[in-house]
Amino acid sequence: VGFADTMTINSSATTTIVVGSQVLVASILGGVEQAVAIGATTELDGSESYDPDEEGALAYAWTAARVLDDGSREDANPLLASADTTQSVLAFTPTTAAGWASDTSYEFTLTVSHGARSAAYSVLVSISSDEYMPRATITGFDESVKYNPTEGAFTAIYFKATSPDSARTIEQTAWSVGDGQSAGLLGKPSGAPSPMLIDLGKTRPNAVYRLRLTVTDSIGSTSSTVVSLTTNGPPTSGTFAVSPYRGTALTTEFEFLLDGWSDDVDDYPLTYTYGYRLVQDAALTPLVADQYASAWFLTTLPQAPNVNITCVGRVFDRYLSYAQAFTPVRVDPLEISTEDLSAFAGDLLSASADTGDGEASLSLVSNVASVLGGTDASRRRLSAKQELIDDLMAHTISAASLVGTGSSAAAAAQVLSTVSRLTGDPDSLSESSQTGALGLLSDVVGGAAGTGFDADTAAATAATLSSLLSASLFASVAADARRSLGAANADLGGQMAGTVGALATGMIAGAYGGQNRSVVTDNLELRAFRTDCGTRDAAFRLSSGAGVTDLPASALDEAGGGSCDADARRRGRSRRRLLDGEPADVDVKVAQLKNVHASEGDGAVSDLLQIELGGEGATVKVDNLAEPIVFDIPFDYDPTLEADYDPGTDTETCFNQSQVLTFNCDVPTTFDCGESREVTLPDGSTMTFEAPVYSGDGVPLDVTVTCPAKTAACSFWDNVTRSWSSDGCSVVANTASGVTCACTHLTDFAASTIAADADVVVGFPPSPAPSTAPTPGPTPKPTPRPTTSAPSPAPTTAQPTTPGPSPSPTHRPTYSPTTPEPSVSPSPEPTPRPTPTPTPEPSVTPTPRPTPAPSVSPTPSPTVSHQPTPQPTPRPTPRPTPMPTPRPTPTPTTPQPSPRPTLRPTPRPTPTPTPLPTTWQPTAEPSLRPTPRPSYRPTRSPTPQPSPSPTVPPGDPTASPVFAPTPQPSRTPTLRPSPRPTPAPTPLRPTLRPSPRPTAAAPTFAPSPIPYVVTGGLSFSGVSLAEALEAEAVFVVAVAILCGVDENAVTVTISAAARRLLEEALLPGRSPGAPMRRKSDYVPTAKPTTSSPTLQPTNYAPTAAPTSVPEGGVVVAYEVAVPSLSEAEAVSSTISSTTVADVDAAVATAVTANNETLAVVATAVGAVDFAATRTRAPTAVPLPGDDASSSASSGGVDAATLGGAAAAGAVLLLAVVAYVVYRRRTVVAKEEEERSPRNSPRIDVEEGVDLKAVKAAARAQLAQTLADEPPPPPPSRL
Questions:
Q1: How far apart are CA 277 and CA 286, in angstroms?
Q2: How many CB atoms sit inside 10 A of residue 56's CB?
Q3: Closest Cα to residue 1004, out of 1232, 1186, 1276?
Q4: Is the entire prediction scored with pTM above 0.70?
C-alpha cells in the first residue's frame, strides 16, 4: 500500500489479536475397551497425552469406577490404594483379595492438567475370571486423531495376540466393525496378520467407528479389544466461480474465487489451492506451489486441445481434509507466429522473473508451451521454436529454485507438471534441453521422494521420463553418442536410472504393508511394493512378466527388514517408529525401462530391469548375499536361441594375407588370412604355413568354420567400469524369449547373448590334376572336394585302393558320384548332417530326424518322424501332426480359421483378443480383467469375489433414466418435472414447482390453501450424536407437543455439537513423524496482480467460524408444516414463549410415550421463523369444442400460414391466462391476509400449568377461529 506525503489524506487502523492456549490432549493407549485377566499385572499407558503449546510437564491423575448392570458408575478408587495414580502409566494387579470382581467392567479415567487447563480420557477394562485367557493388544494406533475420509487413503492398526499359557496357542484373530457399520472398511481379510488396514475412502465424514479385535486360543477361550476411529469432515457450503467464462490462451486473465466455505470451529484456518485439467481424465495441473490463505486468485490459462478446460478449486482445513469444486471455461487458441510468440513470451518471462514469483513463472512457462504445441505444423523445420523451448527450460530451472520443492509436495508437483508439458514432443528437444530436463527431474524427484507423490504427480513424472527416453540422447546408439559428448554426458543413463528409482521410492511413501503402486508408459513400467510379514513370500512382477520370483530372507535382512518371527512391539503415536528386534516393512521396487546403457555390439538384447530394496524413503545397497535373488528378464523371441538350433558351417579361401574372411554365421565370425596357421599335409603330417602374400604367388588356404551357437546370459551394468558384467550372476533357465537369473546383488540388469569361439579347420585346396601315381596309402582325412572335374572313365584298378569305406564321411558331399554305379549296400551309419541339397531320388527309408529346412516340394509320402520341423512348411500337410508345436507360430498358417475348435487350448493366450467370442457359453472361471463392455445377459449366479473397485455410490445420477419409480421419493426435487404426471398426488405437501401438464381430473372450484413452514432449533446437552439419532422419534414427538400439531407435520434434523481440538494428527499423505502445521504457519502468499478482482471487493473478511455450542451435545433443527398463515402465526407465538423448562417437560413426555431411556437437558431455544410455500394456481382445462385436433385445413391456405396463426393464437392465449391467474392469486393472498391479521390468538403459559393441556386448548381455539372465517369464493372460469 502506498502513502502520500501529506497527513491530510492518510489513515490508520488498529486491531487486537488475542492468542489463547490450546486445549490439552489426553490419551490412553490400547483401545477404548480392553480385557485383562484376574490376577494379571496390568498397565494403562497415558504417556501419549500432550500439550499442543508445549508449555511444560503435565500432571496426571487416575480414577476408577465400577460399571453397574444399569449402566451407572460406582466409585472404585479404593481399589487403586496400592497403585501410584499420579504417573503417566498406571500399574496395578486386579485380585479378588484386593476387592476386584471378576467378569466385571471398570471405567478408568485419566485427567491431565497444566495450570488452569485440563483434559480427561476414559476407557473400559473388563476383568476376566480366566487367568490364562488369550491377550489381544493394540500396539500402535492413535485414537485421538481425526482421520480424513479421502479416496485411496488408508490407516493401519498394529496389534498382537498372545497366550500366557504355553499349552494354549492362538488359533485365530478376527476383526469386526460395529453394528450398522460397513465391514468394507477393512483393507485386508478379517484374519490377516498385523497391521490391519482401514480403507478411509469408505468412511463417512464426521463419524465414529468402533472396530473390535477378537482372539481365540486352542481351547476356544476368547478376549477382545475395541478401538475407536473418528473421521474428519471437509469444508462445506461454499461456491467456486471463474470469470470470465471465455477467453484467449496466454492473454486473458481469469479470476478464481472460492467463497462462503465453512467448517467446524476447531478445523480452522481454511486454505486454498487452484489448478486445471485439460481433458476429463488428465492429471491435475497445479497453478500454485502451496496452499493459499486467500480465496481469490488471478492467472492466465493454457491452450487446450478442445478449447474446454476444467478449473479445479480445493479448500483445505487444518487437518488437510479438502473439498473440491469444478467450473468449466472456454479458452480459445492464440493465433501467433513462432517469432512473435518468442518475443511476447520473452517479455512476460522477464517481467515474471523480476518479481521473484516462482509459481507465476512456472504457470507462465506451461501456458507458453501449450501455445507452442498448437503451432506444430512447421515446428521441426524452424530452429526458433527449439530455441524458445531452450529458453523456457532455463526459466523452469530458475523458477524451481524459488518454490521450495524439497519441503513442499505441492511445489514439486507444479515443477514436475511444467517439465512434463515442455517435454511432450521429444523430437523438438535439443540436447541441452534434454540434459537440463533430466537434471531438474533428478534433483526434484530425488529431493521429494521422502515425502511422496500423489497419483497425478507420479503419472506426470513417468510421462516425462518416457518422453525423454524417446529423445535423441537415448536413441538406439545413444550410449556411444553420449560417450562421444564427453564425461559430462557419459553417465546420463545412470542419471535416468537413478531418477526412476527415486520415483519408485516416492510412489510407495506413506503406504502400508501389502500395498503397491504402479505406473505404465510407453518406455517405462514401474511398480513399488511395500511388504510386511504377511506378503514377503509373494512374487514381485510387472505386467510384462519381468520381476522377482524368489526373494530370500537374507536379502530382507540386508534391507533392514528383520525377522518376522521376532516379538513385534509398537508403541507411541508414530506408526513407523520401530523397537529392537521388531520386523520392519521392506520396499521392493521393480522397474522395466528402455535400456539406457545398450550400445552396438555389446550383446544386450532386453530392456533394462531395475530391482531395488529399501524402506522409510531410502534405498539400501544389497551385495554379497548368501542366497541369490531369482528374477526373470523377458526379451523378444529369437529362434537362434532354441535348444535344437543348428548354426551350420561355411568355407572360404585365403588367396593372400591381406584378406579378412567373413563367414555366413548368426554370430559375427571372421578370419585373418595374415596369421600363420598349422595345416595338415597329405601324408598326415602337419606344418606351419601362411597364405600367399599376393594372390597367385603360392598355394591358397581353405578355411572351414563351424558357426558358434548363441546362448542367453545374465548381465548387469557396472557403474565403475561402465560396462556389462556377469560377476555374481548365474543362469537358472533360459528360453528363446527370456532368461531366469540368480544374482547375489541388486542393480540394473539386462539379458545378453554369448557365443563360444568358432571351430576353424584350415587346409590346402586339392591339386588341379591327379598325381601320376597313387599315394602309398589313403589320406587321414578325405579331400573336401573331388580332385578332378569329372570321374575317370574306368576304375583305376580291379580292386579298390582301400580295403573298405573311409571311417568317416567326407566334410562335404562330392559334386558327382565317385563311381559310375552306386555302392552295393548303403553305408552302415548315416552322415552326421544332411546334404545341403536333396538327392535326385528319395532314400529307401526315411531319416530318423527331420531336416533343418523343409524341402522345396513335398515328399510323395510323409516321413515317419516324431519331432516337428523347426520351421513350418510353406503349404499345410494333408494330415495334422501327431503332437502340437512347442510354441505357437507368429502368424496364422492358414488364411481362414479351422471349421472346428481344437480339443485343447493353446498353452499361452494370443497377443490380441479375438473379435468375436469363441463360445456362447460363459467360462468356468472369471477372467483376470473385466471385459470392455458388459455381457449380453447376466450370469445365473454371483461372482465368488466382489469387483476390485466399488460401484458408483448411491445418490449419483444414472446415465439413463430408469423405467420404474424408486421405492422412496428423493430428498430433493428434480430439476426438471417428470414426463408424465403421477397417478395420485403426494399426500403430505405440494411440490416446489408446478407440473408441466394439468391432471386428468376436473379443476377444483376453490384455491388450495397456501401452506406455511415454521422453522426453529433446540439445543441439548448430555447426549451424543449417535444416541440422539437413535432416539429421533423422541424429538419429533417433543416438537409436536410444543407446537400443538400432529407428529406427521414435524421434521427434525439432528447434528453434533463442537468437537475437541486436536493438534497432532497423523494424516494420510503426510510424512511419518512430521509435526502438524500450526496456525501461525499459514501466512498469505503475496501474489502480484495486474488488475483488481471483479467478483467482489478487494478486501476479504476472514471466514466466519460457526458459533460454538455446548460440548458433548446436539442441535435439533425442526420444520413444522401448517396449512395457513393463522396457524403458522399461532405456532410461532407458542414457540416464542416456550422456555427450556417447557422443552424438558415435552421431552420427558415423549420419552415416556416412546418407551425410551434418553436423559437430555435442554440448553437453549432458538429463534423461530415461518415462510409461505405457495402452489401453482389451478390450470385451465380446455372447454368442449376447443380440441385443436378437430381442425382441418381449408382450401387455399397452406400449412405454414395455419402454423403461424396457431402460434400467434397460442401466445395471445397464454398472455391472457397468465394475467388472469396473476390477478386471482393477488386477490386470494389479500383476502387471506385480511382473514388472518398479525395479532393472532396467543396463549400465555404460566408457571405450573400442564403443558399438554395448554397445547390442546391452543388447538381448539385455532380450530374455532378457522370455523368462523367465511369460505372463499369459487375461482373464475376461463
A1: 9
A2: 9
A3: 1276
A4: no
CA-nearest of 751, 482, 758, 729 to 632 is 751
Q: How many CB atoms lie within 10 A of CB 1055?
A: 14
- Distance of CA 542 to CAs 411, 546, 588, Å? 30, 5, 12
Mean pLDDT, residues 1171-1180 taken together: 45
Rounded to whole angstroms, how far apart are CA atoms 812 and 765? Answer: 13
71-77 long-range CB contacts below 8 Å, 24 or more apart? 73/107, 76/106
442 sits in which H/E element: helix 431-448
Phi and psi at residue 192, to the nearest 5°: -70, 155
- Whether 31 and 196 have beta carbons less than 8 Å apart is answered as no
Among the listed residues 12, 9, 97, 23, the one whose alpha carbon sits nearest the alpha carbon of residue 55? 23
Query: Could you give the CA distance from residue 796 to residue 815 in angstroms, rounded to a whole number?
Result: 20
Query: What's the CA gap between 921 and 923, in Å, rounded?
Result: 7
Q: Distance of CA 151 to CAs 198, 205, 1097, Å? A: 12, 12, 36
Chain center to CA of 1059:
32
Cα–Cα nearest to 1146, from 1005, 1012, 1045, 1264: 1045
Residue 1105 has pLDDT above 90, yes or no: no
Going 305 to 309 to 310 to 313, the CA torsion angle's sign is: positive
Q: Is 180 left (phi over 0), alpha (psi -120 to 50) or beta?
A: left
Separation CA 141–CA 136 (nearest Å): 14
Cβ–Cβ < 8 Å for 164, 135: yes
Cα–Cα distance between 839 and 91 in angstroms, integer?
Answer: 99
DSSP states along 591-632: EEE--TT--TTS-B-S-EEEEEEEETTEEE---S-SSPEEEE
Work out the burial of residue 433: count CB atoms within 10 Å of its CB; fewer than 13 is exposed, 13-18 middle, 19 or more buried: buried
Query: Can you read off the three cell numbers belonging to residue 726?
Result: 556377469
Residue 1233: is its pLDDT beyond 80? no
**Interstrand relation of 33-37 and 117-128 (parallel, antiparallel or unpaired):** parallel
Q: Quick check: 1277 and 1217 in contact, CB under 8 A?
A: no
Instruction: Report the alpha-carbon distance of residue 284 to residue 314 in Å, rounded.
Output: 12
* Residue scoring higher pLDDT (679 or 648): 648
Q: State the Cα–Cα distance between residues 386 and 375, nearest whole angstrom.
A: 12
- Cell 550383446 belongs to 603
What CA–CA distance (Å, rounded) separates 81 from 72? 22
**CA distances from residue 498 to 432, 502, 815, 1081 in whole angstroms, order as listed:** 19, 6, 62, 34
- pLDDT, tens digit, 9 for 90 and up, residues 315-358: 999 888 899 999 999 999 988 887 888 888 888 888 877 778 88
> What is the DSSP-derived secondary structure letter of residue 236?
B
Task: Tell me the C-alpha distance between 7 and 782, whole Å.
Answer: 121
Instruction: State residue 416's pLDDT score.
Output: 86
- Tally of residues, the chain: 1278
Amino acid present at 1109: V
Q: CA 479 to CA 595: how far, in whole Å?
A: 10
DSSP per-residue letters across 702-746: EEEEEPPPEEEEEEEEETTTTEEE-TTEEEEEEETTEEEEEESS-
Residue 1160: partners with Cβ closer than 8 Å, 6 or more residues away: 1020, 1021, 1022, 1023, 1028, 1147
Q: What is the DSSP string of 30-60?
A: T-SEEEEETT--EEEE-TT-B-TT--SPPEE
**Contacts of 834 by beta carbon, 8 Å cutoff, 6+ apart:** 847, 851, 852
- The Cα–Cα gap between 1175 and 1006 comes to 13
CA 863 – CA 648 distance, rounded (Å) = 23
903-956 residue pLDDT tens: 556 656 666 565 555 544 555 566 555 655 565 455 555 666 666 655 544 444
Write down the pLDDT at residue 1213: 64
